[in-house]
Amino acid sequence: MNTAQERARAVRRRYDLQRSCDIERILAAENVEVLRFPLAGRLEEVIVFNFIGVRDTIEDARQVYELLAHALGHYLLHAGNQIEFVLPTNTLIADQWERQAWDFAFELFMPAAMVETCLHDGWSDSDLQEDFEVSDEFFRRRMEAFRRDHAMQSSSNRREYERNEYSDDW
Asked: What is the DSSP string of the chain?
């Protein structure tokens, strides 16, 4: 589990997050204000100080909540660095911050432990998506990240097992 996921778990516990719409309550408690306004280009959300701007043409509430969770990840993980984020010379850092912010949002709205339990219990993708109240795109990206993380964890466990299994002193 990475730092972004750990931070999301802490936020879930602190604010007793039950549904994605609870993000509004979390933002209020964190003193973050949300504004809707036109954003140009590919930008759908932006955060400056304690203000999150969300593109005003996005009408799906689920997508708005997801963007707010993503921006909250930036706010909590990268506070004070938003100006650096947009500089073209820092694309490696920008890519890392984007992934961290999405990891935060994924864990906030679809915690890995809950996803794993549901999958183990035989839930379908449509049941999962409906229960977690997330958009198609968010669900697709979350499941990709879940499978990536799960594969990395399995690979790490396998290497640990092999290291212990074959390290016997003769």
From this structure: --HHHHHHHHHHHHHT--SGGGHHHHHHHTT-EEEEE---TT-SEEEETTEEEEETT---HHHHHHHHHHHHHHHHHSTT-HHHHT-GGGHHHHHHHHHHHHHHHHHHHS-HHHHHHHHHTT--HHHHHHHHT--HHHHHHHHHHHHHHHHHHHHHHHHHHHHHHT----
Our CA angle for 162, 168, 170, nearest 5°, is: 145
Task: Delimit the domains of the chain by residue range.
Answer: 3-165
- Across 105-119, average pLDDT: 96
Tens of pLDDT, residues 24-33:
999 999 999 9
Sheet containing strand 33-37, edge to edge, reads 33-37, 51-55, 45-48
